[in-house]
Amino acid sequence: MPNGGSKLRPETVEHYLETIYYIEHEGEVVRPSRIAEWQGVSAPTVSETLQRLQRDGWIEVAKDRSVRLTPAGEELAATVVRHHRLLERWLTDVLGLDWASADAEAQRLAPGLSDEVADRLAEHLGQPDTCPHGNVIPGRSAPYGTLVAVADLEPGQAAVVRRISEVAEHDAPQVLRLLEAAGVVPGTLVEVSEAGAGLGAVGLRIGEEVVPLGLDIARFVWAEPQA
């Protein structure tokens, strides 16, 4: 092992690489402080772990302390995320769990899932492209085009909800329950309406009903504008 030192536990490696993958794929610059916030651990713990991950070839840390996955890190992270999102699909589509509960259960089950079982699960589910809330399963292609945050849509603009940000899934699981209960789910046609919207809110018309969403929540919802 390069540079000596104790070896990280496989579950620690996977958890950190998964976290970096999620943050990176949401378009954020990955910083140690963001990883600490995401994982709920201290800054010194993150710094020490990142040093070991870099030593073992999983990540690169730039001079500005931004973090990127190496090709090996990206490959392992994608495998972990694939297992997690397939489990979420199974837990919601087959067992009927709500989004937030499925995410929590998938987090517990994913470390013990083998590639063989994941492949069988994908086949059983019909090779889904996304998790229940629209985030692409690694190895599949996005079944949608360019997306815009609902918070940035203009009044009168119609759009189809395509995905809920991974940040919402992690940072605010209660948001998942709220959106699911309101019918703001992938595949739903919505229209930004003046009615129901006020200061710091967006009104989404779904059928005959207008659902008001705070801007903080509307930024987590990504939709595909319709002509």
Question: How would you characterize this protein structure?
Answer:
Strands 3-8-4-5-6-7 form a 6-stranded antiparallel sheet. A two-stranded antiparallel ribbon has the order 1-2. The mean pLDDT is 89. Strand 1 (59-61) and strand 2 form a beta hairpin. It has helices spanning 10-25, 32-39, 43-55, 71-93, 99-109, 115-124, 166-171, 173-182, 215-218, and strands at residues 59-61, 67-69, 148-149, 158-164, 189-193, 201-206, 209-214, 221-225. With 227 residues, it is an alpha+beta fold.
What key phrases describe this protein's structure?
227 residues; alpha+beta; six-stranded antiparallel beta sheet; two-stranded antiparallel ribbon; 9 helices; 8 strands; 44% helix
In short:
The chain is 44% helix and 16% strand. It has 227 residues and is of the alpha+beta class.
Order of helices and strands: HHHEEHHHEEHHEEEHE
Principal-axes geometry comes out as: globular
Low-confidence stretches: none
What is the tally of helical segments?
9
> Beta-strand percentage?
15-25%
Radius of gyration: 19 Å
How far the N terminus sits from the C terminus, by CA atoms, comes to 56 Å
Mean pLDDT: 89
Biggest pleated-sheet summary: 6 strands, antiparallel
Helix content estimate: 40-55%
How do the strands of the widest beta sheet line up side by side? 3-8-4-5-6-7
Describe the protein's topology.
Layout: H1 10-25, H2 32-39, H3 43-55, E1 59-61, E2 67-69, H4 71-93, H5 99-109, H6 115-124, E3 148-149, E4 158-164, H7 166-171, H8 173-182, E5 189-193, E6 201-206, E7 209-214, H9 215-218, E8 221-225
